[in-house]
From TrEMBL:
<comment type="similarity">
    <text>Belongs to the fatty acid desaturase type 1 family. DEGS subfamily.</text>
</comment>
<feature type="transmembrane region" description="Helical">
    <location>
        <begin position="105"/>
        <end position="129"/>
    </location>
</feature>
<dbReference type="InterPro" id="IPR011388">
    <property type="entry name" value="DES1/DES2"/>
</dbReference>
<keyword id="KW-0443">Lipid metabolism</keyword>
<keyword id="KW-1133">Transmembrane helix</keyword>
<comment type="pathway">
    <text>Lipid metabolism; sphingolipid metabolism.</text>
</comment>
<feature type="region of interest" description="Disordered">
    <location>
        <begin position="1"/>
        <end position="47"/>
    </location>
</feature>
<keyword id="KW-0812">Transmembrane</keyword>
<feature type="region of interest" description="Disordered">
    <location>
        <begin position="377"/>
        <end position="397"/>
    </location>
</feature>
<dbReference type="GO" id="GO:0016020">
    <property type="term" value="C:membrane"/>
</dbReference>
<feature type="domain" description="Sphingolipid delta4-desaturase N-terminal">
    <location>
        <begin position="43"/>
        <end position="81"/>
    </location>
</feature>
<dbReference type="InterPro" id="IPR013866">
    <property type="entry name" value="Sphingolipid_d4-desaturase_N"/>
</dbReference>
<feature type="compositionally biased region" description="Polar residues">
    <location>
        <begin position="1"/>
        <end position="10"/>
    </location>
</feature>
<comment type="function">
    <text>Delta(4)-fatty-acid desaturase which introduces a double bond at the 4-position in the long-chain base (LCB) of ceramides.</text>
</comment>
<dbReference type="GO" id="GO:0046512">
    <property type="term" value="P:sphingosine biosynthetic process"/>
</dbReference>
<dbReference type="Pfam" id="PF00487">
    <property type="entry name" value="FA_desaturase"/>
</dbReference>
<feature type="transmembrane region" description="Helical">
    <location>
        <begin position="215"/>
        <end position="234"/>
    </location>
</feature>
Length: 397
């Protein structure tokens, strides 16, 4: 693998956590005098992986463009996203109608909400993720309005707020105080046990919903007001015509989609450091791995659930090229395979959830953090999806 893109190489896997992240950081410091991973800033009471290097995706993106300039032809909207979203929205409305007279705590209601509803809602979560990158329509405004449509069967308005927070996550990966995907030190300390991690995995949808507002507030815009107004009107129509249980189905599906559900594994799999993964063991045997201490901070997942989640599992590929839609990420992986074949990855989201909860070497501390770099994305840039497609090398958002 080219040396210019080895910024995601993992630590040696035998280093234990708790004697965990601290031990790995100490190991990193002693492995190479050029190590850029440092202990937490003075006074910081945490065990995160602190680094002062640039996030790896920009470096790898530039190397891939240099080696395979044809990948730029993969960028641009995917029209198939539109009918798929409409089909899943219709499916959820149909299920809500079918369950309108079914008791909420009945097995029929709960199993439908878990098997169909949660899977469909995760699909809509990730459709909104695609749309936030302007990958459904060419028009930024059309994408923003369509995200509101995809939001409808979720029951709670969030698409307008998700977009700027998510684009900032891309521009500020791992930056403390900007990347709202990062757990806070309080979360990591308080939930640092099997029971605590089980609680986090069960209620992680609430953490992802509430944490961004605790980190920084977004200015309210017209699209936020539109999102709220349309969602409240839709919920009112559903309750008036189908009853409260129909709306309860939407809410239950959304909760289960972000709880102990196989598809919810992507929340944890994407950016938590899993140093015990099999490919990590293989990679750590090389001299290059031993001399490159900073741990991988993005993991791809190459399993079957990509079929119902807009290929969000190809997460290294997505962060490298956010302007490439879900239907072309496998093509990117194929073209630039030498850049991805040696990176640590996952093959089971259910396995990720289990390991996250049970493995003492994995927990909320296992995230790479930076004190500097990145910036908030909002306003006109958010309206443009955070991308400047006419300048290929600038596709860093």
């Amino acid at each position: 693998m080219p040396s210019s893109v080895t910024t995601a190489t993992l630590m040696q896997p035998h280093v234990a956590r708790r004697n965990g992240p601290r031990a790995e950081k100490e190991h990193a410091a002693s492995s190479s005098s050029s190590s850029s991973t440092t202990p937490s800033p003075p006074g910081a009471h945490d065990d995160f992986f602190w680094t002062y290097t640039e996030e790896p995706h920009r470096t790898r993106r530039q190397a891939i463009i240099k080696a395979h300039p044809e990948v730029l032809k993969l960028c641009g909207p995917e029209p198939w996203t539109i009918p798929l979203v409409l089909a899943v929205v219709s499916l959820q409305i149909g299920c809500a109608y079918a369950l309108r007279n079914t008791p909420v705590l009945s097995w029929t209601f709960l199993l439908t909400a878990y098997v169909i509803g949660a899977t469909a809602t995760q699909n809509l979560f990730l459709a909104i993720h695609e749309i936030s990158h302007n990958l459904a329509f060419k028009s930024p405004l059309a994408n923003r309005l369509f995200a509101v449509v995809a939001n409808l069967p979720i029951g709670i308005p969030y698409s307008a707020s998700f977009r700027p927070y998510h684009l900032t996550h891309h521009k500020s990966l791992g930056v403390d105080g900007l990347d709202t995907d990062l757990p806070t030190a309080l979360e990591a300390w308080f939930l640092d046990s099997v029971a605590g991690k089980a609680f986090f995995a069960t209620f992680q949808i609430l953490f992802y919903a509430l944490r961004p507002m605790m980190v920084y507030n977004l200015p309210l815009t017209t699209i936020h007001a539109f999102n709220v107004a349309v969602q409240l009107a839709f919920d009112y129509v559903i309750v008036q015509n189908f009853g409260g249980r129909a709306l309860g189905y939407f809410i239950m599906s959304a909760f289960l989609a972000g709880s102990l559900h196989p598809c919810a594994g992507h929340f944890i799999a994407e950016h938590y450091v899993f140093s015990q993964h099999q490919r990590s063991r293989e990679a750590s045997a090389s001299e290059a791995a031993k001399l490159a201490p900073p741990p991988a901070e993005t993991y791809s997942y190459y399993g079957i659930l990509n079929l119902v989640t807009y290929n969000v599992g190809l997460h290294n590929e997505h962060h490298d090229f956010p302007a490439i839609p879900w239907t072309r990420l496998w093509k990117l992986n194929q073209i630039a395979h030498e850049f991805y074949s040696d990176l640590p990855c996952h093959y089971s989201w259910s396995g990720v959830i289990w390991q996250f909860i049970m493995d003492k070497e994995v927990g909320l501390w296992c995230r790479v953090k930076r004190k500097e770099g990145g910036r908030k994305v909002g306003g006109t840039e958010a309206a443009n999806g955070g991308h400047r497609l006419p300048v290929p090398v600038e596709m860093t958002r």
